[in-house]
Amino acid sequence: NDGSTLSDMSGAGAPQLWAAGEYDAVTEYLKGDVTQLLALAARVARSGAITWLSNRGKPQSVRTKKLITVEECFRIPTPDTSWMSNPPSRVSFVDWVPNWAARVGH
Question: To which H or E segment does residue 52 belong?
Fold first, then answer.
């Protein structure tokens, strides 16, 4: 908006920049996130699986028949995480979304 260049843009600063009218800067920053997620979704849809490397460097994968919505994800039973020292909660992945519970019927 004012012509300055942002060298340390992060998701944490996006709301303040948006409120300050820096729409182009925030949109440009978010394009990277959206582009990467869209590419991942396309690859999973095409291959029928999501693959990754474990912390030990071993290939891992989960087959999937289709991509599912966040609402459908919340219907999946939670896994046993008793073996983890600090397991993430399902809610922690969506807690940043305003009014997320109403959106997924939670």
Answer: strand 49-53
Strand pairing class (59-63; 49-53): antiparallel
64: Cβ–Cβ under 8 A, 6 or more apart, which residues? 44, 48, 49, 50
- Identify the CA nearest to 50 among candidates 69, 37, 35: 37
CB count in 10 Å sphere of residue 22 = 20
How many Å from the N-terminal Cα to the C-terminal Cα in the chain? 38
Model-wide pTM > 0.70: no
Domain locations in the chain as residue ranges: 11-65, 67-77+88-106
Question: What does the alpha-carbon distance between residue 35 and residue 43 come to, in Å, rounded to a whole number?
Answer: 12
Q: Hey, what are 64's tokens?
A: 């999937």
54-80: pLDDT as tens digits:
999 999 999 999 999 888 988 999 999
HSE, side-chain direction, 13 A CA sphere, residue 11: 7
60 phi, psi to nearest 5 deg:
-130, 155
